[in-house]
Every structure is written in structure tokens, then in C-alpha cells.
């Protein structure tokens, strides 16, 4: 069988196995997330498995960069990923996404034995340094939107009243122009 046929069969199997399971998410036909542990469990973690074009002959990409994992230290994440990588090597050439999720569920306690939740201030700096470059720039863009220059603040203050609201009728010119173009029925 070709890699694509294997992937299609595994995709159907995953959909039927995990139908109705709240822990499972299909991000795309080749990318899946599974939450190991219940919601609210401090030792719960999220695994993301993405298939390459030649999967299952080549290993899938396994990631723990989800925001859900931001309280897990990078050492624990690396340890879990290393153990999952061993399972990948043992199952290379076969459909293994289900096997990886079940292996993680069966070994959750062992995986998280060294886990000590880290506080939110250090988790933010860790998650930025640990995450892929695709997600880091988006957090920088959000910061820039919040900061206005003095000129922008002054212009905004001139447009609004002391409560920060625009004055009544500020867009009436636009409304009148729009109505004159569309021709209201009152004119007839």
C-alpha cells in the first residue's frame, strides 16, 4: 500500500475510535491532538501528532508546544517526547497514532512523575522560548497593538469625549451619503 492509502485507512480508524471522545481533536486530516488526563488534572498534558507525506514509513512529528502544556517544564516535555520517540521507532512502518496516544495514556503517571507545576510568570517566558517560531511572532504583534504613540493618543482623545466614546452623530455624513446613493423610498 502507498503512504496515502495507509494514512486514509488510519484516519478512518482514528475517527471511528475517538468519535465522541472529548480528549481527541482532529486539527486537519494529517494532524491530531490528544489530551492525556482529565480536564483540571494538574498532571494532564496535550500531545500533537502530525503526519509527514511519507508517514508511516517515516516518523510523525510529535509536539507538546500547545498552550495547554505551559505549566510543564521543558525538561519534563523533553522526557515525554523522548519516550514517545522510542515508541515511534518500535512501530515505524505501521499506523501508530492510536498506539502513541494509548502508550501516553498508559504511562501518564510515569511520564509526569517529575512534574512540578511552574508558576505563570515563568511559564510565559518558557512557552515563548519553547514554542515554534510560527507562534512567537503573534504574541509580539498583540503587544504592539496595545501601545499607541502620543500623537495617536491625542488624535483619539480629540475624536472622543471624556468617557472615551465618539460623539453622537459622528458618522451621520456617511449614513446620509449612503442613503442618497441608494435612494430611499420616502423620496417617491
UniProtKB/TrEMBL annotation:
Domain RWD, first and last residues per copy: 9-111
Ranges of compositional bias, category Basic and acidic residues: 155-166
SMART domains: RWD (SM00591)
Segments of this protein annotated with the region Disordered: 117-167
Coiled coil: none
Superkingdom, natural source: Eukaryota
Biased composition (Low complexity): 118-129
Protein name (Swiss-Prot/TrEMBL): RWD domain-containing protein 4
Organism (species): Orycteropus afer afer
Phylogenetic placement of the source organism: Eukaryota, Metazoa, Chordata, Craniata, Vertebrata
Gene behind the chain: RWDD4
Amino acid at each position: 500500500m502507498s503512504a496515502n492509502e495507509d494514512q486514509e485507512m488510519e484516519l478512518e480508524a482514528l475517527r471511528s475510535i475517538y468519535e465522541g471522545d472529548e480528549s481527541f481533536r482532529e486539527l486537519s486530516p494529517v494532524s491530531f491532538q490528544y489530551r492525556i488526563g482529565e480536564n483540571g488534572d494538574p498532571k494532564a498534558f496535550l500531545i500533537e501528532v502530525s503526519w509527514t507525506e511519507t508517514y508511516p514509513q517515516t516518523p510523525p512529528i510529535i509536539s507538546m508546544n500547545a498552550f495547554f502544556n505551559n505549566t510543564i517544564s521543558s525538561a519534563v516535555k523533553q522526557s515525554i517526547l523522548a519516550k514517545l520517540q522510542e515508541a515511534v521507532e518500535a512501530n515505524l512502518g505501521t499506523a501508530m497514532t492510536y498506539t502513541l496516544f494509548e502508550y501516553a495514556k498508559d504511562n501518564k503517571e510515569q511520564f509526569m512523575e517529575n512534574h512540578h507545576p511552574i508558576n505563570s510568570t515563568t511559564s510565559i517566558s518558557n512557552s515563548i522560548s519553547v514554542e515554534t517560531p510560527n507562534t512567537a511572532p503573534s504574541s509580539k504583534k498583540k503587544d504592539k497593538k496595545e501601545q499607541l504613540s502620543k500623537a495617536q493618543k491625542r488624535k483619539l482623545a480629540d475624536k472622543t469625549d471624556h468617557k472615551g466614546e465618539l460623539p453622537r452623530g459622528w458618522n451621520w455624513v456617511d449614513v446620509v451619503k449612503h442613503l442618497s446613493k441608494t435612494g430611499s423610498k420616502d423620496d417617491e
